[in-house]
Amino acid sequence: MTARHRGWRNARRIALVGTALIAALAYGNHRWQQLLRVQGIEQLSWQGLRLVAEGPVLHHLQLERRQADGGRLQISAEGLALAWPERDDEGWQLPQLRIAHLELDWHPPPSGDSTPAASLPVLRGLAALPRDLTIDAFDIRLPCASGHCPLQGSLQTRHAGAHLLPASLELQLRHQGQRLALHADLDGQTDLRELTLQAHLLLNDQPLAQLSSTLDNRATEQAWQGELAVSGLPETPWLWEWLGQWLPPLPTGAAPPLQAMQLEAGWRLYWPQGPLGLRQLRETARGEARLRARLPEPWPLAGVGLLQGNLALELAGAAGDWLPRQLQADLHLTQPQGTWLEGLPETLRPKTLQLQIAPLAPRPGKAAEDTAILPLSLQLRTQGPVQAALQGELHIASRQPDWRIELDAAAIKVDAPRLQLSGTRLERLNARLWLSGRLDRERLQLALGEASHLNLGQLAQPGLRLERLQSELAGLHLVAEHTDGALHELRLSGPLRLQTQRLSHPRLRPQGWAWQGRLDAGLERQQLNGKLQGERGLGVDLQLQHSLDGTLAVDARLADIFLHAGNPLAETLLDWPTLLELDKGRLQGNAHLRLRPGVPLQGELELRPKGLSGVYDRSELGGLSGRLQARLHGPRLELRLAELEVTHLNPGLPLGPLRLRGQYSASLAQPLRGQLDWQQAELALLGGRTWLAPASQELSSGSATFAVQLEGLQLGELFRLYPAEGLAGQGILDGRLPLLVGPAGMRIEQGRLANRGPGVLQFRSEKIRALGRANPAMTLVAEALEDFHFGLLSSDLGYDEQGKLRMALRLEGRNPSVEKGRPIHFNINLEEDIPALLTSLQLTDRVNESIRQRVQQSLRKNSDAP
Q1: 490 and 575 in one domain?
Q2: Which of 168, 227, 447, 799 has the greatest number of C-beta atoms within 10 Å?
Q3: Are residues 648 and 721 in the same domain?
Q4: Pfam families from the xrefs (predicted)?
Q5: Same domain, yes or no: 685 and 621
Q6: Phi and psi dihedrals of 537, rounded to 5?
Q7: Is 697 found in the same domain as 559?
Q8: Does the predicted model carry a pTM greater than 0.85?
Q9: Cis before 657 (ω within 30)
Q10: Are strands 675-685 and 695-698 parallel, antiparallel or unpaired?
Q11: Which of 535, 558, 573 marks a domain boundary?
């Protein structure tokens, strides 16, 4: 029993230990999986793990990691051998790691975050790597300019453990049997406050570039100095094909011979304590730098083009202000490319640029304090669709902080035989500008000198063409204020004169125009003020203003037009009514137009005629005065007549004065189908008047009815004007005429006239007497009408669209000398062709001579018509 009991107890202990071990393994696996998920490791596996005396050996390792920002890393390694960790005074260290073959595929985050600036903590973190890391061969796929590109080679790094320094790097890259090697040695103090880097770049074991650099971080500020030298090599076209995968596209056909290029650079920079980055260097660094470049053959610069020539440059600067102490350049750029060209239309982009800068002898009599000024001669030429040249003198005073750059005696020449800019065609462009200016740490100033001008043989757009356009630009000033390289104020101002010998537009008669005014343009507002004058007499004072929000405001004032000297509107506007001639009076006007993105167009126009006289069609008019206002708001048009008066009208018989006051509104889509409102519509007629009572009329149907009232018409005045021999009389008539106006014309239906009180009608004509003698039935009529005293004269009348007037006349009265004055009643139907009547009246000497000529021409055309 005792033995059995002891066996049972041992079995129970083994079970408890096993259970605990299983639980521990399960928990450990759970924690391990958690760690993998936190690190984004989706796959981790290995094969062939074994332990030897030197350390663990792993036949194969596979890892895939996906970052939260979308980046992905895949690693596959073969033949890993890791030496056992060693402990020294600084703690545990990994002495050696060797990898026979490494495959790596890295896809960066889609956001394309930039690499952070280098710092000492990053360097210290490299000490955690094995002291001796060797990768016999690697195949890596990394992002490149053309997508995802492979790299093949080997790597060996060594460092001193926890102190890191000294450290070395041996990197070998292989491509199509060629080798590119980088050897770098990093040394310095153990606290990393002083670092020295020596690097050599070799191509097939021949030196290509050397770098020597020292970073000193021991004092209150950091210091960085170094030298870089690049020497030529035999021709290696394969290198550019390979580098083309990693660099932005090179200009077409660019494969420069390396042996032709020489480059030397040196620098000594100081900046406050902090991380090292390009922004810190640009904004806070001080010091000096030099560059010597010799490019006897075109050399491709990504984002610039093919550069050829020589450059010698020495710079000195502080707090972001870097200016040359010496500068000499003779550079030629072909096949230019890059973002610096994107702001120019393609037709303006140069094909080649040539820059020449050379030392200039100091001016005689310079003061001693000007010895720090660097005088240079500057020449810049471009070839392409536009040929341009800049030639002048630069005087650079590099004394800090009051540095300045002065441009003197500069001349700019621009010539282009033909240019196409979007929908605009330019021909024979020619510009000559004389320029001076100054740049300092706060302001840029440029001024155009005397005789600066720009000429165009022709400027053509759809519907618009300017010929022989000349502009005078002398006196224009450009001022730009900046702080720390940021522009916060820009102003272009000065006089501006433009003149074209011929302007053609579908709405205008071809003629010459001239503009003289002033330009004031800034970042937030651009304004142009001046006068536009046509060679045929029309003048307009214009003000154009463009705001930052895109609003364009145009204000125009028409120069007073005195029509006795001619009508410049008729000589300018093709749409001027050909039947309207004005030869007296004065016309004034002004307009305002406002355009804003996303807001309906707004405009206002006001015309103020005063005493206008002339001819419209076959009617003479005189004394036209008043005010006409038009307003445009998006799709709506409003017209307003304020106190419009025409002193007299004469379409063959004298009328007037005419007085109108009212308004009209309609949509631009249907301008003739709107709302008409009037407060006054009155015309003096035959000693009386005709008028419309104030009312409104909707014209949406295309037709309208007006109740025309007649009051106080004098029979004597009518018979004085009516061309009937021996007809006279006295009396007053009133009436009402329903006037219908439609697409076919106007007509009157059921009109009514009647006398106001008794009157006299006298028709003493030898023709009517002869008719009475020949026809006894007409004897009484002829005798009665010679002196007929009526008590009733009324008529129903109608008028059709063809101009026929029909009257049903009822006449009641007596002739005191006929049959003892017994009552006599007449019913007379009359018909008159009003256009023919007016034509006969217009052929008399009571109308304007030009009207009579128009009538005669119309009659001749009608008689010649088949």
Answers
A1: no
A2: 799
A3: no
A4: YdbH-like
A5: yes
A6: 110, -15
A7: yes
A8: no
A9: yes
A10: antiparallel
A11: 535
* Whole-angstrom distance, CA of residue 609 vs CA of residue 75: 89
Q: Are residues 528 and 547 in the same domain?
A: no
Question: What pLDDT sits at residue 659?
Answer: 94
DSSP assignment of 22-82 equals HHHHHHHHHHHHHHHHHTTEEEEEEE--EE-SS-EEEEEEEEEEE-TTS-EEEEEEEEEEE
Tokens of 145: 């300019």
**364 phi and psi, to 5 degrees?**
-60, 140
As given in the structure block, the two tokens for residue 473 are: 């630009």
Separation of alpha carbons 354 and 346, rounded Å: 19
Per residue, what are the HEC states of 247-293? Answer: CCCCCCCCCCCHHHCEEEEEEEEEEECCCECHHHHHHHCEEEEEEEE
To which residue do tokens 């975050």 refer? Answer: 113
Contacts of 679 (CB under 8 A, 6+ apart): 661, 662, 694
> What domain range is 466 assigned to?
388-535
Residues 424 and 563 in one domain: no
Indicate whether 688 and 586 sit together in one domain. Answer: yes
Q: Is residue 194 part of a domain?
A: no
Find tokens 């009359």 and name the residue.
Answer: 830
> 282: which 2 tokens?
């640009």
pLDDT of 751 reads 92
**Of 497, 496, 553, 486, which is closest to residue 523 (Cα–Cα)?**
486
Total count of domains within the chain: 4
CB-based contact 436:407 (threshold 8 Å):
yes
Secondary structure of residue 367 in the 3-state scheme: coil
Residue 10: inside a domain? no
Cβ neighbors of 286 (< 8 A, separation 6 or more) are: 269, 270, 271, 317, 318, 319
Q: Is 7 helix (H, G, I), strand (E, B) or coil?
A: helix
E strand intervals along 319-372: 321-334, 352-359
191-230 residue pLDDT tens:
778 889 999 998 888 888 899 999 888 777 888 899 999 8
434 with 569, same domain: the answer is: no
- Does residue 174 contact residue 153 with C-beta atoms inside 8 Å? yes
Q: Which residue has the tokens 């005189």?
A: 622
Token pair belonging to 402: 């009051």
Cα 294 from Cα 288, distance rounded (Å): 21
Domain boundary among 668, 702, 736: 702
Q: Are 864 and 673 a contacting pair, CB within 8 Å?
A: no
Give the Cα separation of 732 and 713 in Å (integer): 5
Bridge pairing between strands 96-107 and 132-144: parallel
Q: Which amino acid is at 250?
A: L
Q: What's the CA gap between 461 and 425, in Å, rounded? A: 7
Residue 752 lies in a domain: yes
The answer to whether residue 148 sits within a structural domain is: no
